[in-house]
Input
Amino acid sequence: MPIGHREGFMSTALAVSIMGDEGAGNPPVVILREETNVTSGTAVQEKLIAAARVFADILRPTYGPRGLDKMLYKTDGTTAVTNDGAKIVAELMVKHPAGKMFVAMAESQENSCGDGVTGTILLSSELLLEAGRLLEKGLHPLTIIDGYNKANSVALETISELATPTTPDSIEQVAITSLTGKGAEGAANLLSKMIVEALNTVEADADFITMHKTNVGSLADSKLIHGIVVRRRVLLDSLPSQIDNPKVATINGDMAPRKQIRSAEIEIEDASQLDAFLEAEEATRNVLAKTLLASGANVFICSGSVDKGLLHRLMRAGCFVAGEFDVQELRNASLATGARIIEHLADITSDDVGLAGRLSTERRTPTDKVEDIIRLESCPSPKVVTCEIGGANNLAAEEAIRAIHDSLRATGMAIRHNRIIHGGGATHMACALAIREAAEHEAGRNRLAMESFASALETIPSALAQNAGTDVLDRILELRAAHRNGKGDAGITANGEVGLTGAKEAANSLESALSSATETCTSMLRIDQVVSARGD
Output
């Protein structure tokens, strides 16, 4: 019977079969199922290195300003065109256990920094390939791990020394660098200014910046809205399509008279009694409408349904009403306008009402999709803003949104931590040279691992040169010489030459990438046996 069976499980435990007494003719005690495959020794490293090589080969052509795109055709028939490493890794149907470790590393880098996923995977893959060469030479895995950890510490210290404070120009350059090589590169100058303005408005927190596709025009028509844009049906054609300087109320729940929670049977003997019930219900609506109007609000947004009678009363008073907002949209409306979300309609006061510069609606021909657009824009002090992205091509617009999202996260991190470094492989080469110098002071075998770590760092400028179509070896040798001659800002330009790239990136992003790549690689090196219940 199987013990500890779990599909794809890796373990250092030995597969043991306890044999019975042969003389007694007792059958063996089976510990693992017959189809279970146990891989040990050098074959384990070969499996891990094979997974690393596959990921590196997939993502390397997408890296840098000359990186190309991948078309992902999914099982549900949808298609995506992207060179975003996080998107590619997320869409791959990975079965290999080591491959899943790369996927987890990519998710961690994306969640913490929003950018640098491709570089992290390339670096981790190269570290594992270099470790494979050292294992063939007879080095123990723990010796390699020790050397890698020391090299990582040297690299992090080097980054701290090279990091410089941000300036308005350098912040914009960080945004441009993150957009370069992606679908949004054609409008990088426009989008970078929009990104910086958006981040400055919301205190550099990208979580308070939303995206909206217009599905018309081009990427150059993109703009920043100090407010929100949502797709919701306009409840009545008679509702106003534009209100200047609206006062906004946000309600979590239904806009309707409170319903009775008790059930009862009432016997009505004549029509006048029924009229009395109906009149009482109408009176309740009148009181509720007066309460809402007394708050001073003329735009009401709720997360539930809207009572028809109450809707018509507010419409006749010149108010706009929208319902069925989800929780996130209601929160964004509240943060953009400064309105306080209320739970009970009768408790609304003027203090709960927020302000916006303008409310406008775009009404489309009714279809099975929600295509009406409601805008609350030009808010005086919004805590949520919206990037409205133009583009008639849906796939291109989706790729532009992914690029802008990554740029928002990377630029926001640079603003918050006030630390930036040179891009284009310049910092990677500086770290590699610092590690090689530190390795000269190590007497043990771990110095070989440190030198391998330095060689792995050079895979980043190598990938940039390779994708630009130039000779990789010549460019790496030129870049090493440039840094040794004091040109610490030299990197691989978009044309594949060695020189000033102008690229900037957040120091924390590279620090996170190095640490994640090192941890993932060292975790794999600790594996000495693979137990597969699938038999592969």
Remarks:
- Residues 1-24 have pLDDT under 50 and may be disordered.
- The chain has two domains: 42-164+421-532, 227-381.
